[in-house]
Write a structure and sequence with these properties.
Blueprint (H helix, E strand, L loop, with lengths): L6 H12 L5 H6 L12 H15 L13 H12 L4 H4 L6
Helix pairs in contact: 1-3
């Protein structure tokens, strides 16, 4: 998965992984509000990280579960999306 994670997807993950309903528009209007202000605790964020790892088949950055705001989380996760994995760097030419 190389697509950038959006606020809409983050809101859906908050619902599916943490059972928390947050309007994506509220996340967009308050991207620097803490996850705690939205009602998401550290275990909920860890669940989101785990769900993303399962979907992508690769680990998230080690600090992902420590992000405090939606803006920080999206920036970290999306920056990691642009870095190829070791497997993607392996040549398949057979040389």
């Amino acid at each position: 998965m190389n697509a950038q994670l959006t606020l809409n997807e983050l809101a859906a993950l908050m619902k599916s992984a943490a059972g928390l309903t947050v309007d994506p528009k509220e996340l967009a209007n308050r991207p620097d509000a803490t996850f705690t202000e939205f009602g998401l605790d550290s275990l909920g964020l860890l669940g989101i990280v785990g769900e993303l790892e399962n979907r992508q088949g690769r680990p998230m950055p080690t600090d992902a579960e420590r992000c405090k705001t939606p803006r920080d989380f999206l920036a970290l996760v999306n920056a990691a999306q642009t870095v190829p994995t070791v497997q993607e760097n392996v040549s398949t030419t057979g040389a």
